[in-house]
Design goal:
Elements (H helix, E strand, L loop, with lengths): L16 H8 L22 E7 L2 E7 L6 E2 L3 H7 L2 E4 L6 E2 L2 E2 L3 H10 L3 E6 L6 H10 L9 E3 H11 L7 E5 L2 H9 L3 E4 L22 E6 L7 H13 L4 E4 L5 E2 L7 E2 L1 H12 L4 E2 L6 H10 L6 E5 L2 H10 L3 E5 L6 H4 L10 E3 L14
Parallel strand pairs: 3-18, 4-7, 4-16, 7-8, 9-10, 9-11, 11-12, 12-15, 16-17, 17-18
Antiparallel strand pairs: 1-2, 5-6, 13-14
Catalytic activity: 2-phosphoglycolate + H2O = glycolate + phosphate
Subcellular location: Plastid, Chloroplast
Pfam families: Hydrolase_6, Hydrolase_like
């Protein structure tokens, strides 16, 4: 049994004594101590979790949903919620190409008074940079409506009062650096280390900064052996050093022509070298959902999560207690959804979000 009041979760059993004390201290809020360690898809069996709430322990049981239903009445779904959370890659765009019908769909939902939020596991850009991408694609989306996993990494550090005199080593791109800078944290690494090489020779000892208190790993097109070794040294040798992953996505959409190896491949390298599991702040971890619900004062039952991935988007919505809609415009095919091996079932599925424009009650 996993208990949130003490750090005995399997993913953190290898924490040093000092790190255990940190997480058990007031620096790490009680209501956050379970959510961010869980990153495994739910099995067909119920999973019982212990949650801490108002100093009382209560049981919460989560079960997989029944088989997904095709969306037939869009109006009914729209009217049943007040907020739509959209994934971006595979839902709003693929690569740098806007998916057909997206502008009209967003306009429809706004006209009905719905709050729109855009959540992406892609950490290569900051919220401001994503705002420019939305603008380039002709979409009117404010920075306050955008939540990237780069922002989630910085927000997570703030939520645990990560010491400002500690540094963050980044295996990732510019988006993480910009969000850490905005949050007031010192950092090193990032694209700058992409050209660094290690000259392996007898007796060579690689130095690392002992003030690094967290290693953040995200998608990184400049990934190399230097970064793997530097991050490994920080995690294994610096007392209490955190290992944070923006996401563990297997693949990503760098172009609209094919799928590319995702941030999970970079995270996997550090898992292999450190024999440690990371704290995941992106989907399907509940950190961003909890953050959004608190920021906007949203009841999770009044949210619909719309995404193209089962093990991130849909699980993210289910973990948060939201309605879920899978679109088939990205990674997941209908064959995959309906496979007997798939245990993650959304409430509804449809081809793309522009189906909201055509699936009216009168046509059912």
């Amino acid at each position: 049994m996993l208990r949130c009041s003490s750090i005995t979760c399997q993913s953190v059993t290898t924490l040093s004594h000092s790190r255990k004390l940190w997480f058990q201290s007031s620096l790490f809020p009680l209501n956050l101590r379970f959510s961010y360690f869980s990153n495994s898809p739910l099995s067909s069996k119920s999973v019982t979790l212990i949650k801490r709430n108002n100093r009382k322990t209560r049981m919460a049981t989560f079960t997989t949903h029944a088989s997904a239903q095709p969306l037939k009445n869009a109006d009914e779904l729209i009217d049943s919620v007040e907020t739509f959370i959209f994934d971006c890659d595979g839902v709003i765009w693929k690569g740098d190409s806007l998916i057909e019908g997206v502008p009209e769909t967003l306009d429809l939902l706004r006209s009905k008074g719905k709050r729109l939020v855009f959540v992406t596991n892609n950490s290569t850009k900051s919220r401001k940079q994503y705002g420019k991408k939305f603008e380039t694609l002709g979409l009117d989306v404010s920075e306050e409506e955008i939540f990237a996993s780069s922002f989630a990494a910085a927000a997570y550090l703030k939520s645990i009062d990560f010491p400002k005199d500690k540094k963050v080593y980044v295996i990732g791109e510019d988006g993480i650096l910009k969000e850490l800078e905005l949050a007031g944290y010192q950092y090193l690494g990032g694209p700058e280390d992409g050209s660094k090489k290690i000259e392996l020779k007898p007796g060579f000892l690689m130095e690392h900064d002992e003030d690094v208190g967290a290693v953040v790993v995200g998608f990184d097109r400049y990934f190399n052996y230097y970064k793997v070794q530097y991050g490994t040294l920080c995690i294994r040798e610096n007392p209490g050093c955190l290992f944070i992953a923006t996401n563990r996505d297997a693949v990503t959409h760098l172009t609209d022509a094919q799928e590319w190896a995702g941030g999970g491949s970079m995270v996997g390298a550090l898992i292999g070298s450190t024999q440690r599991e990371p704290l995941v702040v992106g989907k399907p971890s509940t950190f961003m959902m909890d953050y959004l619900a608190d920021k906007f004062g949203i009841q999770k039952s009044q949210i619909c999560m719309v995404g193209d991935r089962l093990d991130t988007d849909i699980l993210f919505g289910q973990n948060g207690g939201c309605k879920t809609l899978l679109v088939l415009s990205g990674v997941t095919s209908l064959t995959t959804l309906q496979s007997p091996n798939n245990k993650i079932q959304p409430d509804f599925y449809t081809n793309k979000i522009s189906d909201f424009l055509s699936l009216k009650a009168a046509t059912v």
